[in-house]
Amino acid sequence: MIRESVTDTIGNTPLIRLNRIAEGLRGSFYAKVEAYNPGQSAKDRIALFMVEEAEKKGLLQPGGTIVEATSGNTGYSIAMLAAIKGYRCILTLTSKASTEKISLLRSLGARVVICPVDVAPEDPRSYYSQAEQIARETPGAFYLAQNFNRDNALAHYHSTGPEIWEQTQGKITHYICCTGTGGTLTGTARYLKEKNPAIRILGVDAYGSVLKKFWETGIYDPDEIRPYKVEGLGKNIIPSNLDFDLIDDYIKVNDRDSALRARDLAAMEGLLMGYSSGSAMQAVFQCPKEFHEDSLVVILFSDHGSRYLGKIYNDSWMAEQGYLPPESTDSRAIAPVSICRTQDDREASRKRYRTYYLMYRLYYRKFIHQTQKSLGL
Ligand code: PMP
To answer: Which end of the chain is less congested by CB atoms within 10 angstroms, N or C?
Structure first.
């Protein structure tokens, strides 16, 4: 079949059964593999939809400039579309984005502006503020604003949701999805819940992000914010694209488990997926009681692993982070989590549990103080 344009190859990504990694868990597990999009991520869907809606609304004119603040994947998709449709493209990224991602964007003709990662969103140096400023100062510019542009979630409502429903013949019982802007989860989950309100929606968040706490309490708590490594997952703002009411449970995952789980996907399933796909897979292992023998679980894998060759698929980087024991770096390219854990990873585990223990002590101390205060002690 001949396609008229690269844009015609966006969407209709495969749903692939996970045969080995989920062994021992109840239910059947399937991956919605968004790396099959031409830009190798789910963001192709939203870039196409948002750009075409902006064209229809007259917000983007021929020869115009598309501006966006992006962790990388949306940027790639926008740069790709800008190349196809003849727009200029300016992207602001945080310094957390991998060098591979930055090179990819530049090779598609985009101008890339790197902004500091550890500043507040309202700081004029943040990648959001910089994108706004560039859009204001560039004639004919359109700022896509994926966190707040409702066409982000709508793109998934019109494509990812119906695809998953049809691919599972309506038998899906659980949908597991990482949340950043919330567009992927919101659009897909809204469609699925309309078809069957009993489908359980499990959101995935990072330690260091504000999203889960907001879902639990309705409070935006800046104290939750701290640096973490997984790209695309979590937020330090509350994006209006994320409909928190659709989420039945929210699971926080850490950098180490996400990295090891992504490597397991490669080693056990032949799926070289991105870092946040490891997070989504890790979430499954953190809520095994959710699933029953007849559960049909769909896990969305957002992007491809080739963008993380210098990070989670690089043994030296893994050892530097303390995710792999140093002696494993020269002999074994990829080690399933189970092997890492049973051999010589005990000290790293002990360290982790010590950190958890200290965290919990601090957390409970806060409540003791509050109780004492309220009792006037
Ligand atoms: N994973 C990756 C790799 C991403 O780039 C993103 C998007 N920032 C997400 C997960 C989260 O998707 P969404 O923005 O639709 O919530």
So the answer is: N
